[in-house]
Write a structure and sequence with these properties.
DNA-binding; mainly beta; 2 helices; 10 strands
Length: 197
DNA sequence: CGGCTTTGACCTGCGC
DNA sequence: GCGCAGGTCAAAGCCG
C-alpha cells in the first residue's frame, strides 16, 4: 500500500529521534527529569510545538465528541477523536478499550522531522495502520509493550507539510521509562540538524 | 524462535 | 437506515 516515508519496511527502525518527555498527568508541562518545557516548546519555524489539543485537555471528554468542536483550530489534518465501541464477549474491536466511558486524555504534538518514529524512551509495538481521509500518508497505531501499560500513540505525517509528524499519545505510562535519555540539548540539536537540511 | 510489522477484516460511531 | 471514516484485531510473514 502506501509507505509512510523512509521509516518503514526494509530496515526495521530508522535512527529514531529521542524525545525525553514523560507524559503529563494533567496539564501540559512536558518535562524530562525535572526539566520543563511548558508550552514554549518551540513553534512555527520550528521543530516541535504543542498542538492546541494539548493545551486544552478537555478536547476529549468522556462522552464522545460534545466538545471536540471547541478547539477546532486544528487543521483539516487534525488528529480527530472518535471511535468508541462496546466490546461484546470481551472481545475488543474497533475504537478503544471498553474501560467504561472514561476516555483517557490524549496529548498531541508536532515534530518536524523526516522520520516518523520518535523515540521517547518507551518501547512501542505497532498494531495497525490506516489510510486517513485527505491525507496521503497513513496513520500508524502503536501500543506500549510494557506489561500492564495501556498507553497508545498514533503517528501521522501531514500531507500539507511532509516534514511535520503529528504524534498523539493516549494514556499515561504506569512504569518507568525504559531507556535513559536526559540531555535534551542534544536532542534539540538533532532537531535542528533535521530541520536545517 | 520470539518479537515485531504488515495488512485485510471487522466493529463502532457519526453524519447525511 | 446507510455509508463512511476511524480504530483495533489477528493471522501471516519477516527479521535478528
Amino acid at each position: 500500500m502506501f509507505l509512510s516515508s523512509s521509516s518503514s519496511s526494509s530496515t526495521r527502525q530508522p535512527p529514531p529521534i529521542h524525545l525525553p518527555f514523560m507524559l503529563p498527568t494533567s496539564t501540559v508541562t512536558m518535562s524530562s527529569h525535572g526539566r520543563a518545557f511548558g508550552n514554549r516548546f518551540v513553534d512555527e519555524t520550528g521543530f516541535l510545538r504543542l498542538m492546541p489539543s494539548v493545551e486544552a485537555p478537555t478536547w476529549f471528554p468522556s462522552s464522545s465528541d460534545e466538545t471536540n468542536n471547541n478547539n477546532n483550530n486544528h487543521d483539516d489534518e487534525q488528529v480527530k477523536i472518535s471511535g468508541k465501541r462496546k466490546g461484546e464477549d470481551g472481545r475488543v474491536k474497533g475504537g478503544d478499550k471498553p474501560e467504561g466511558k472514561v476516555r483517557k486524555p490524549r496529548y498531541a504534538f508536532q515534530t518536524r522531522s523526516h522520520v516518523d518514529i520518535l523515540d521517547d524512551g518507551y518501547r512501542w509495538r505497532k498494531y495497525g495502520q490506516k489510510a486517513v481521509k485527505n491525507n496521503k500518508f497513513p496513520r500508524s497505531y502503536y501500543r506500549c509493550t510494557s506489561q500492564g501499560c495501556n498507553v497508545k500513540k498514533q503517528v501521522q505525517r501531514l500531507t500539507r507539510d511532509e516534514g511535520v509528524v503529528v504524534t498523539t499519545y493516549e494514556g499515561v505510562h504506569s512504569h518507568p521509562i525504559e531507556k535513559s535519555n536526559d540531555n535534551f540539548e542534544h536532542i534539540l540539536s538533532q532537531f535542528q540538524i533535521y530541520t536545517s537540511i
